[in-house]
Each structure stands twice: as structure tokens, then as C-alpha cells.
UniProtKB/TrEMBL annotation:
The chain crosses the membrane at residues 37-55, 115-134, 160-183, 195-217, 238-256, 276-300, 312-329. It is found in: Cell membrane. InterPro entries: ABC_transp_permease, LivM-like. It comes from Rhizobium halophytocola. This is Branched-chain amino acid transport system permease protein. The keyword Transmembrane helix applies. It is a multi-pass membrane protein. Its main location: membrane. Coiled coil: none annotated. Keywords: Cell membrane, Membrane, Transmembrane, Transmembrane helix. It comes from the Bacteria.
Length: 352
């Protein structure tokens, strides 16, 4: 009688549940190393602090950049990490804006409470609409998000008794932040407030991006079918990340309302979704600071071009978009790389 064949077992197979195997420990070390704050990140936030002292006359523009950067960061969660393109992301931005305004008008004017309320209401809207994205192709999702955004914008227009309709929501004022820091006409408090909120949001997104949840989102983006085959719950992940992104977009909208003490149907307009998508195209998707860099570039380009050519500034923005899409950001960077031209000149000199 022959003995049964022996089965080779590895350390991972014999490890007790809850113990860290060498492979798991190595994965944890890799994720911890990738999640370390890099030098350029410190430079970004140091520049934001220095801007407060060096550019006192540009506080309103800098505040707008911070809000747009947060809005782009929220879209990057679903586009850059989960691969879900949206043309209706302004719906959550507008919901947050109106929630903060209504809170200040009918309840409390404390900005932080308004932010929390805007985040919750927008996240709820994102959760309910996320189930519409679970079926169909990318084109289906694109049109679904566009349809949801258009419906919410039209609903806000019809509910003039609540939103103010075409006249906008007015008659409210934003109280001091935490009861201590009042908003001023020069926008200094609004800038600091917006940058602090942006910083906290980026730190939350960093934690998401460098976690197993963030890695599973990248797997879904690459191939959702294959991700499901390795037990990644794609449906649940899409619902969660879309809800989180909607909450962040709502916070960005609330910041706009609180720093301007006004909101209107413009916060729900289609151009909001198109602009934030353009910001991500300029800044890059799939990494944490693409939305911030894109917001800086887009705002500066828009302001400078609208002054130089008031009637045709959108033409130049569109031309930039076409160039970025056709040639790619990396290829353009290599064209203007100093070493590239130095090697070419050296080669011509050797040939002569």
C-alpha cells in the first residue's frame, strides 16, 4: 500500500490567523514607504503659508484656487483612482453650497457646522446616485452622471422658494470660524480657512490612496472583472469612493458659499463639471496633487488670458487642452528637458 503524497506547505499556509507572514510584512513596509510625506509636498504647503505673507492683495484669488483644488481632489478620487469619469460632479458641489447657505440662513452661521452639514448631505446624494453607476460601460456612466447633474440643477431652479431660483440665495452671513476668527473684506480669514480645510482633505485622501482600499480602487480601475476574480468587492468599493468624493465636493461648495456669502444656480452649472475635469487634465490624474497644480495653472491662465484677450481666452484654453491630449504631459516635459537639448548639441558638435 503506497503512502499518500505529501503536500508542500509554505510559511504563509501554516501561519496562524491574525499573524503577519513575511509577504504581508513586506507589503506593509512597502505601503509605509510609499505613504511617507515627500519633500515637494512640504514645499507645496510651505508655499501656501508664504503666500499669505507675500501676496496679501491676492487673497481672494488664492482662496478660489484652494477651493477649486479641493473640488478637483474630490473628482480625482473617482476618476484617477477608480476610473469613473463624471460630467455631473458639480451637482454635489452645488448641493454643498446650498446646504451651507441654508444652514447659515435658517439655523446656525458657524462655518464648521455648515461644512459638516454640507459634507453629510452631499455624501448622501452621492450614495444614492452611486447605484446608477454599477451597471453599463464608461459611456453609460458618463451620460448618467451628466443626467443626474442636469436634474439637480433644474430642481434647484424650480424650487425658488428654497434656493432663491435665478436670483440666488442671499440674506445670510457667515459667522466667525469656531466663534473666534471673523471673515474680513480682504479675504485673509477665508484663505487660511480654505487652505486648512484643503490640507485636511488631502491628508485624508493620502490615507485612502496608500491603504489597501486605495490599492483595490486601482485594481478596479485597471480591470474590474479581474479585481472581482481576486475577491475585491468592486460594487461596494465604487459606492464607498463615490460617496466620499461627493462629500468632499460638497465641502468645496460650502467653502465657496461661506467665503463669498452668496450662492446661485451657477454652482450647479455644467461648466463647473467641465472646468474641474479640465483642471485634472492639466494637473494630471491618479496622484494627490494633480488637482492642486491644475487649479493653480487653470486659474492663472484664465485670469491672464481673459485680460490679454477678453473675447478669445477660451480658445487658448481649448488649444492647451488639445495639445495635452494629443502629445501627453510626459512627452511635452521631455521636449523642454535641458539635458535633451544638451545631448543634441553635443552630438552635433561631435559630428562636425
Amino acid at each position: 500500500m503506497t503512502a499518500p503524497p505529501t503536500v508542500q506547505t509554505s510559511a504563509e499556509d501554516t501561519a496562524l490567523p491574525g499573524t503577519a507572514t513575511p509577504a504581508v510584512a513586506e507589503a506593509r513596509r512597502l505601503m509605509a514607504r510609499r505613504s511617507r510625506i515627500r519633500l515637494f509636498e512640504v514645499a507645496v504647503w510651505a508655499a501656501a503659508v508664504l503666500a499669505y505673507f507675500l501676496l496679501p492683495s491676492k487673497m481672494l484669488v488664492l482662496t478660489e484656487i484652494a477651493i477649486l483644488g479641493l473640488f478637483a481632489q474630490s473628482l480625482d478620487l473617482v476618476l484617477g483612482f477608480a476610473g469613473i469619469i463624471s460630467l455631473g460632479h458639480a451637482a454635489f458641489f452645488g448641493i454643498g453650497a446650498y446646504t451651507a447657505g441654508l444652514m447659515a440662513l435658517h439655523a446656525v452661521a458657524e462655518p464648521v457646522l455648515g461644512l459638516l452639514a454640507a459634507a453629510l448631505v452631499s455624501a448622501l446624494a452621492g450614495f444614492l446616485s452611486s447605484f446608477l453607476l454599477l451597471r453599463g460601460s464608461d459611456l453609460t456612466r458618463l451620460m448618467t452622471t451628466l443626467g443626474v447633474g442636469m436634474m439637480i440643477a433644474e430642481a434647484a431652479n424650480k424650487m425658488a422658494w428654497l434656493t432663491g431660483g435665478a436670483d440666488g440665495l442671499t440674506g445670510f452671513s457667515t459667522g466667525p470660524v469656531l466663534g473666534l476668527f471673523a471673515f474680513d473684506l480682504w479675504g485673509k480669514t477665508g484663505y487660511v480657512y480654505s487652505v486648512v480645510v484643503l490640507f485636511l482633505a488631502v491628508m485624508v485622501c493620502r490615507r485612502i490612496a496608500y491603504s489597501p482600499f486605495g490599492l483595490s480602487l486601482r485594481a478596479i480601475k485597471d480591470n474590474s472583472l479581474r479585481a472581482g476574480m481576486i475577491a475585491v468587492p468592486a460594487t461596494r468599493r465604487i459606492v464607498i469612493v463615490y460617496t466620499l468624493a461627493a462629500g468632499l465636493a460638497g465641502i468645496a461648495g460650502a467653502l465657496l458659499t461661506q467665503t463669498t456669502s452668496f450662492t446661485s444656480l451657477d454652482v450647479l452649472a455644467f461648466h463647473r463639471s467641465a472646468d474641474v475635469l479640465l483642471v485634472l487634465v492639466i494637473g494630471g490624474t491618479g496622484y494627490l496633487y494633480g488637482g492642486i497644480f491644475g487649479a493653480i495653472a487653470f486659474t492663472l491662465l484664465r485670469d491672464s488670458l481673459s485680460i490679454a484677450t477678453p473675447q478669445y481666452w477660451m480658445f487658448w484654453i481649448g488649444l492647451l487642452l488639445v495639445v495635452l491630449v494629443l502629445f501627453g504631459r510626459d512627452r511635452l516635459a521631455r521636449i523642454f528637458e535641458p539635458d535633451r537639448w544638451r545631448r543634441r548639441l553635443r552630438g552635433k558638435g561631435d559630428a562636425a
